[in-house]
Write a structure and sequence with these properties.
By secondary structure, the protein is mostly helical. The protein has one domain: Orthogonal Bundle (Arc Repressor Mutant, subunit A), CATH 1.10.10. It has a two-stranded antiparallel sheet. The termini are far apart. 16% of the residues are buried.
């Protein structure tokens, strides 16, 4: 399947893409995503790993969930968060692997 080019992208897609970059522009959210790589975690564990207060972690997780970057799964009284958009990890790896941005 051919990749879409910027020239052929509809205006509404630019807006959605800008929204994604806006969500990813916050260092706290990037730390949260890093903590979720490869495993589902509860808010407390995410908070500890990302070194954020639990209230801030919850706020950022809500935004990531609304953007459909993470999802939740309930296990009894525990809610686990996991990355549902692997493209985000690929994008972060691409940028972090570039010496210019690292």
């Amino acid at each position: 399947m051919p990749k879409a080019s910027l020239k052929s992208m509809p205006s509404r897609q630019f807006s959605r893409l800008a929204g994604l970059f806006s969500i990813l522009s916050d260092p706290a959210r990037l730390r949260i995503l890093q903590s979720l790589r490869g495993e589902a975690l509860c808010v407390g564990d995410i908070s500890r790993r990302s070194r954020l207060k639990q209230a801030n972690t919850s706020k950022h997780l809500r935004l990531l969930r609304e953007a459909r970057i993470v999802s939740t799964e309930r296990h009894g009284t525990t809610i686990l968060y996991q990355i549902t958009e692997p493209l985000v990890i690929e994008l972060c790896d691409l940028v972090c692997g570039n010496r210019r941005w690292a």
